[in-house]
């Protein structure tokens, strides 16, 4: 006797079902997974920021919804043309001059910029002789001499003729007397002129004063000799 078994399903039905499943799977394989950008476009709430707070009773996090985002407004942009700054073209001579500047300070204090102004003291003949020997020297001259004559000019200009006590060359001191100080001066007095030379024997005078007999008897010879020695030494070392 034969035992009874379960009836077998026909093979045709199982093959057809398997083919249908393959067809469905093939149609699904052609689809791609959604990206994060697609999910954001589809549902903006997926990436929104949530509000969380701590509950004081059980010390647990509590969900309070989503944070409302303000709509982003694009700023208005205006195109403004700004011209480029004009650069000055420096000549090659100026650049070479800057490169050739000496390094460090000069050893002689008198050769420094703005430090070559000196004050010289002497009588008329000494000042005229020294100015002729050193015409380019930057000096304030303190000239002492005897007043011979005062010549009045236009607009307060006065020319004082001054020389040594006995004889010698004559110096012309150009002075503008706006306060009428020279009206009380008489020829034959000793004067002190302070100024700078504007010619061979013309002194642009800034300050004038009368000198007493005691001041006139100073040791001008010693002062002039020391000044001459210093100028000679300075000229040799240049």
Q: Can you tell me about this structure?
A:
With 238 residues, the chain is an alpha+beta fold. The chain has 2 domains: 12-67, no CATH class; 114-237, OB fold (Dihydrolipoamide Acetyltransferase, E2P) (Beta Barrel), CATH 2.40.50. The chain has 6 helices and 8 strands; from the N terminus they run ααββαβαβββββαα. The strands form 2 sheets. The protein has a 5-stranded mixed beta barrel with strand order 4-5-6-8-7. Strands 1-2 form a two-stranded antiparallel ribbon. The chain is rod-shaped and about 155 Å long.
Short précis:
With 238 residues, the protein is α+β, with helices and mostly antiparallel strands.
What distinguishing features does this structure have?
6 helices, alpha+beta, 28% helix, 5-stranded mixed β-barrel, 8 strands, 238 residues, OB fold (Dihydrolipoamide Acetyltransferase, E2P)
Give a topology summary.
Layout: H1 11-29, H2 36-42, E1 50-54, E2 61-66, H3 92-99, E3 118-123, H4 124-133, E4 139-152, E5 157-163, E6 171-176, E7 190-197, E8 202-211, H5 213-216, H6 220-237
Parallel strand pairs: 3-4, 6-8
Antiparallel strand pairs: 1-2, 4-5, 4-7, 5-6, 7-8
**What's the CATH H-level superfamily name of the largest domain?**
Nucleic acid-binding proteins
Point out poorly predicted stretches: none
**Number of domain modules:** 2
- Please list the strands of the largest sheet in the order they lie side by side: 4-5-6-8-7
In the CATH hierarchy, the third-tier topology of the largest domain is known as: OB fold (Dihydrolipoamide Acetyltransferase, E2P)
Assembly state: single chain
Gyration radius, in Å = 54 Å
Number of strands: 8
Count of alpha and pi helical runs: 6
Main beta-sheet strand count, sense and barrel state: 5 strands, mixed, barrel
Distance between the termini: 146 Å
Roughly what fraction of the amino acids lie in strands? 25-35%
Average pLDDT rating: 76
How much helicity do the residues have?
25-40%
Structural category is alpha+beta
Helix/strand order, N-terminal first: HHEEHEHEEEEEHH
What's the CATH architecture of the largest domain? Beta Barrel
- General shape: rod-shaped
Instruction: Return the CATH class of the largest domain.
Output: Mainly Beta
């Amino acid at each position: 006797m034969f035992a009874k078994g379960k009836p077998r399903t026909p093979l045709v039905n199982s093959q057809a079902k398997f083919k249908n499943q393959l067809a469905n799977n093939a149609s699904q394989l052609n689809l791609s997974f959604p990206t994060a950008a697609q999910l954001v476009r589809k549902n903006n709430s997926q990436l929104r920021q949530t509000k969380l707070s701590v509950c004081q009773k059980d010390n647990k996090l509590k969900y309070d919804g989503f944070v409302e985002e303000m709509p982003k407004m694009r700023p208005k942009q205006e195109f403004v043309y700004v011209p480029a700054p004009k650069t000055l073209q420096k000549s090659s001579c100026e650049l070479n001059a800057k490169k050739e500047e000496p390094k460090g300070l000069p050893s002689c204090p008198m050769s420094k910029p703005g430090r070559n102004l000196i004050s010289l003291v002497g009588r008329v003949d000494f000042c005229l002789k020294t100015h002729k020997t050193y015409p380019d020297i930057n000096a304030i001259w303190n000239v002492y001499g005897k007043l011979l004559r005062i010549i009045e000019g236009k607009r307060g200009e006065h020319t004082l003729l001054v020389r040594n006590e006995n004889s010698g060359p004559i110096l012309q001191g150009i002075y503008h007397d706006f306060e009428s100080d020279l009206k009380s001066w008489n020829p034959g007095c000793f004067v002190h002129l302070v100024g700078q030379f504007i010619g061979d024997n013309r002194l642009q005078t800034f300050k004038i004063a009368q000198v007493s007999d005691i001041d006139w008897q100073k040791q001008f010879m010693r002062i002039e000799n020391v000044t001459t020695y210093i100028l000679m030494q300075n000229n040799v070392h240049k």
